[in-house]
Amino acid sequence: MAALPIEDTLPSEVELTQRLGISRTTVRAVLAQLNESGIIQWSGRTKTVLRKPVAADYFAKEETLSTSERVETQFMEYILGGDLKPGTILHESEMVREFGASASVLRECLIKFSRFGLIEKEPNRHWVLRGFTQDFAIELFDVREMFEQRAFQALLDAGPDSTRFAQLVALDKAHESIIRNIDAEFLNFPRLDEQFHRILLDGLGNRFIDDFFELVSVIFHYHYRWNKQDEHERNLVAAQQHLAVIRALEAGDKQSALDLFQTHLNAARTTLLRSVTWDNET
User: What's the Cα-to-Cα distance from 88 to each of 79, 129, 277, rounded to whole Å?
Assistant: First the structure.
């Protein structure tokens, strides 16, 4: 919509369905919302652009999550925000009511997190919370670091002509903006952080790493229990580290980029261990 001139017309519903990879029902729901907001005028088969969308027209990310993503978010908030201890029994029926989700969607979520040892299903019994312990986080970070080191080396090997290289470098302006306006923007950094690391791992094209990173995204970027006292400073330092890596890539200094990226991973590990309230200390 933002790219179309005023008074231009949108493609047909069929074309929009194919282009966006969504159902015709979803297309119609979106068109109805655009029409109600006065962004387009929808009359029969004609959909005319009346104005450009503004910031207030966009939905918050939380409102656009898929059902499975929403349940994953609710589940992490349930076990972390509720201060549940390791060994706590998790009742499916209770969570279905709490989340307003179907039993099948919830079970899919539970199975996903059980693969990483966060929860466990006892034979013919309940799900049991094993806990987001310090040992769990260290093991998770060890695997994350191994994957990301491999991904960053692959980026360097592909060189500046690769798509991933260009995508990473293109994040420089977003990082500059957050650093420049850190007092107002520091809460927006986790999304940029996720985007930075997602670009790296996408470059590997590895389905197992992709599956792993979904868990990392939920836990490390959104729903673990940060100590909020130094969140502003943490995010500023991480943004500066990202930008330093990007600048080294732009300059063609591969060794410096690699060293700076390892420094960032080391800092991220230290930050995690200092900033999370653990279920138990080891």
Answer: 9, 5, 17
